Amino acid sequence: MTAVAGSLVQMVSLKGKALDIIVWGLIFLICLNGNAFIFGTNFIALPTLVYTVLMVSLVYANHLGVVRFGTYLIRARRWIACAIVLLVVYVASVLVIILPLDFLASSFPHMEQLNRFAKANSIRSVADIFSYLNLIWVLSLVLLPNMIAAAYYYFKRNYEANKRNSMLQKEKTEMELNFLRAQIHPHFLFNTLNNIYGMVMENERAGQVVLKLSDLLRFSLYESSGKRIPVGREVEFLTDYINLEQIRHHNTRVAISYDFEHIENKETPIVPLLLISFVENAFKHGVNATIGKAWVHISLKHESDTILFEVENSKPATKKERSATAGIGIENTKRRLALLYPDKHQLNIIETADSYKVSLTLHTHD
Asked: Residue 339 region, left (φ>0) first, then alpha (ψ -120 to 50), else beta?
């Protein structure tokens, strides 16, 4: 599971790098278009390309310094330090943007529009750094790309965080389901072995029970490892378990009946070992805890993407003290239902003075 999560994280990381290239390529094109318009040149003119590379490098440096370090200062509420950083970044940006203009203008004297622009924005004193033209120039061609980069990284960070949280939640859910399933296996095994222990010295019926148990364990340990199995196979498993109980309670004290005939489509997928806990509970806390006559009725119906499963059993006249492990199977099943059938199941438990009934409705459509 960890390997799968790692692969997904790596995939998201690769997609993120590709998107980084696209965004910075877009910023480069925006700056290139603006510089070509201001210099009066085409897109591939050497001074335009050189100045654009310089400007995008400045935008990236500003992004690293202002967006990341500035965000830290804002969160720490260090307003004076934040103002100093912004002032230093602005002055540095003006110097990096304006000073190369004189060099480009002298290198390409035939480009009149470039020379006029360089002359209008030249720095002759400290006051020129804070001139209106330089302020507009820095804000328009540095601040705008920085805002695009900042917005992109903000949404990218949130997207990656949500992606990681989603993968972690999925991994946590699968680990919890595996844990619940691992608890079901020994829980079922111990209950059945206790039944055999009570019969082994009685007669040859113990051999029949062992054969039934081998089928049940084969299903429990191997076939139930998948996420879904056909409902018909789950019914076969329930039938084997009920037959085992019928062998055990062969006398007339216990009336056991079941009805699995009304299944519209036996290939309908269902989570394995989802229903057995309710059947076990009926025998363990109903039939086995009763000294006198007892009864159990189990039914499963499937129609129009809906499964209705019901288990009803008699209650003992006197309640036995519940052990520390009592109810583990039912609680595990409730948790599995919440994880695997959210908003797709209804579980009703009706308890009267002499009976206990569980009714579970599953909606199997996607």
From this structure: alpha
Strands of the 294-303 sheet, one edge to the other: 254-259, 294-303, 306-314, 355-363, 345-351
State pLDDT tens for residues 45-93: 777 788 778 777 777 776 666 666 666 666 777 778 777 877 777 777 7
Rg (CA), the chain: 37
What is the distance between the terminal CA atoms of the chain, rounded to a whole angstrom? 24
Residues contacting residue 348 through CB under 8 Å, at least 6 positions apart: 358, 359, 360
- 333 three-class SS: helix
In this structure, the strands spanning 345-351 and 355-363 are antiparallel
Q: Which residue segments constitute the domains of the chain, with CATH numbers given?
A: 2-165 (no CATH), 204-363 (3.30.565.10)
**Dihedral sign, Cα of residue 268, residue 269, residue 272, residue 276:** negative
pLDDT above 70 covers a percentage of the chain that reads: 70
The neighbouring-strand residues paired with 310 are 299, 359
Residue 315, sorted as left (phi over 0), alpha (psi -120 to 50) or beta, turns out to be beta
pTM: predicted TM-score of the whole model, two decimal places: 0.49
Could you give the CA distance from residue 14 to residue 164 in angstroms, rounded to a whole number? Answer: 14
- Find out whether 357 and 310 touch, Cβ atoms under 8 Å: yes
Q: Mean pLDDT over residues 261-269, rounded?
A: 92
| Virtual torsion, Cα 207, 209, 211, 213, nearest 10 deg | -140
Q: Do 277 and 329 form a contact (C-beta atoms < 8 A)?
A: yes
pLDDT value, residue 182? 57
Longest CA pairwise span in the chain (Å):
113
pLDDT level of residue 206 (50, 70, 90 thresholds): low
Binned at pLDDT 50, 70 and 90, residue 178 comes out as low
